[in-house]
């Protein structure tokens, strides 16, 4: 795990997805109606944690989670709630959720497009 988290893109995915989950928690505190166990929070946490797996294609799973969440955000019309139609906590939570999931998903795309880093062979091996 240490090796994968030394990659700045993997860290960006992880932090972006975790901050998105915090955005959902802020919305709940602000009074937004969520189920007892919010599926969006579980999906964002899973998408962030999967980026820490030591596999080259692990960010592809984060990308799928992120694309699903962004689609859901757009399909449910949550953009209307980003302009302050609710209280401040809900508005801040919506912005935090959307912007950070977008950043994490873009980092996942870049991580997949960028060629893998090859480690130099140890001298004398």
Notes on the structure:
With 125 residues, the chain is mainly alpha-helical. The protein has one domain. Helices cover 66% and strands 0% of the residues. It is built from five helices and no strands. The longest helix is centred in the last third of the chain and has 26 residues, at 88-113.
Short description, anyone?
The chain has 125 residues and is mostly helical. It is built from five helices and no strands.
End-to-end gap:
24 Å
Structural class: mainly alpha
Element-level helix/strand string: HHHHH
Number of strands: 0
**Mean of the pLDDT scores?**
88
| The number of domains | 1
Largest sheet, described in full?
Answer: none
Strand proportion: under 5%
Radius of gyration: 17 Å
Summarize this structure as a short list of keywords or feature phrases.
125 residues; elongated; single chain; 5 helices; mainly alpha
Task: Describe the secondary-structure layout.
Elements: H1 2-5, H2 8-29, H3 39-50, H4 58-75, H5 88-113
């Amino acid at each position: 795990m240490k090796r994968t988290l030394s990659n700045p893109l993997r860290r960006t995915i992880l932090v972006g997805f975790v901050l998105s989950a915090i955005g959902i928690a802020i919305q709940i505190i602000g009074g937004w109606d969520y189920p007892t166990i919010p599926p969006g929070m579980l999906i964002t946490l899973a998408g962030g944690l999967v980026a820490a797996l030591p596999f080259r294609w692990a960010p592809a799973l984060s990308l799928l989670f992120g694309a699903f969440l962004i689609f859901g955000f757009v399909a449910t019309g949550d953009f209307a709630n980003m302009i302050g139609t609710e209280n401040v906590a809900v508005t801040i939570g919506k912005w935090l959720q959307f912007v950070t999931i977008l950043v994490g998903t873009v980092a996942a795309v870049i991580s997949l497009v960028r060629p893998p880093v090859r480690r130099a062979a140890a001298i004398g091996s």
